[in-house]
Amino acid sequence: MKVAILTYARTNNYGATLQCYALNKYIQSLGYDTIILNVPLDDGSVRKVKRPLYRKLLSFVWNRFYSIFKKIFFKNELYDYEIRYCLNKEQREKEQMYSNRNMLLFDEFRSKYLPNITDEYFYESDFDSNYPEADAYVVGSDQVWNVDICKRQYPIFFLSFVKPGRKKISYAACMGGNDRIIFKGEQKERIMQLLSDFNCISVRNQMAVTICQNNFHFAPKQVLDPTFLVDNYDELLAESSIEAKGCMYIDKFIINDLWVNAIKKISKNKGLQIRMDNCLIEIDDVPFAPLCRIQDWLKLINTSDLIFTDSFHCSVFCILFRKQFVVAPSYQGGEGRMLDLLDKMGIEGRFYYTPDELINNINVWSKPIDYDAVWGKIEEQRADSKNYLIEALKN
């Protein structure tokens, strides 16, 4: 039996790549052949797409209008600590160069561990000329049902292309971090129709359950992210020689002077060196190592004494590796995934919104996490999640 997996398969994002790796590996461990459907997002991040002139003009006009609209009506929509460093032209070019070079490292990983990725599918019509034959189609995990990310490609991620009679399954699909999302009009009708054709539906967090209840009048099953399905990541850790003992590893996209000052204070308080490998921005007095393989990213988490992050999947691997860590979101409004994860594991006290909160509560979050209790929760939820997928894939 062949299973086709649809997720964000080709991106230079550590968590997205590893959840794809984990889901693929676990399904294969059940005895199924797999293929991974390669659907690049329509944002130019993977390949440059030639668009008709009228679409370029419409996009330009809309972007300008939206930019002006935000400046007039939402002048204070972000707090200072939610604003990423503003880079000059030279810094932006360097950031893009390092991002492109990291993509090559990710492609090396995919060629070794995900060699079953298909050719690109970009539009729904692409599936007509090169249909990916399979007995079952599994969409998930990650934010595959966040329409703000997949935009006009959203029907693909609700498996619109699958031929009648084939099994459709979602595993840990995520719809974003805000449970107040409301679908309307044609989009709502299309999604409702596509969901009605699924054989089994599961989502990753309570927000997605609430969104489905509010919009589509059903409550899907909640399961763990695929990264929890894999028993260990020893084969990847063994490929890295990185050692970060005595270090505090920072994996944070939203970075600015406020956060850097907080990080340096914590570093001094704990007597730990700062590691910010894979950060593409050069910061004074912090070692700069922007090129970072997936294996090295995992090893950094695995060997650091303390991790500070705004990443969902970095938090997951902190838990899997039994590490001491603390979380601050990129921005308020997108923290739902993080809070849901920490609440599931009974460690919601590791979360802080602001640099001041983080500093003022060092004595609180410095208390070691009771991982025996956490793993009791993981094992129960892992067994339930595995059983869901086993049953969903059965003929």
**Major sheet summary line:** 5 strands, parallel
Given this structure, which CATH class of the largest domain is correct?
A: Alpha Beta
Could you list the spans in which at least 5 consecutive residues all have pLDDT below 50? none
Average pLDDT figure: 92
The oligomerization state is single chain
User: Count the strands?
Assistant: 11
Description:
This protein has 395 residues and is α/β, with parallel strands linked by helices. It has 2 domains: 2-45 and 97-230 and 380-393, Rossmann fold (3-Layer(aba) Sandwich), CATH 3.40.50; 234-377, 3-Layer(aba) Sandwich (Rossmann fold), CATH 3.40.50.2000. It has 16 helices and 11 strands. Strands 3-2-1-4-5 form a 5-stranded parallel sheet, with helices on one face. Strand 8, helix 10 and strand 9 form a beta-alpha-beta unit. The model has no long low-confidence stretch (mean pLDDT 92).
Produce the secondary structure layout.
Elements: E1 2-6, H1 14-29, E2 33-38, H2 53-73, H3 89-113, E3 117-120, H4 126-129, E4 136-139, H5 147-150, H6 154-157, E5 167-170, H7 185-195, E6 202-203, H8 206-216, E7 221-222, H9 234-237, E8 247-251, H10 257-270, E9 273-275, H11 294-303, E10 306-309, H12 312-320, E11 325-327, H13 336-344, H14 355-360, H15 362-365, H16 371-393
List descriptors.
alpha/beta, Rossmann fold, 16 helices, 4-stranded parallel beta sheet, 2 domains, globular, 395 residues
Overview in brief:
With 395 residues, the chain is α/β, with parallel strands linked by helices. The chain has helices at residues 14-29, 53-73, 89-113, 126-129, 147-150, 154-157, 185-195, 206-216, 234-237, 257-270, 294-303, 312-320, 336-344, 355-360, 362-365, 371-393; strands at residues 2-6, 33-38, 117-120, 136-139, 167-170, 202-203, 221-222, 247-251, 273-275, 306-309, 325-327.
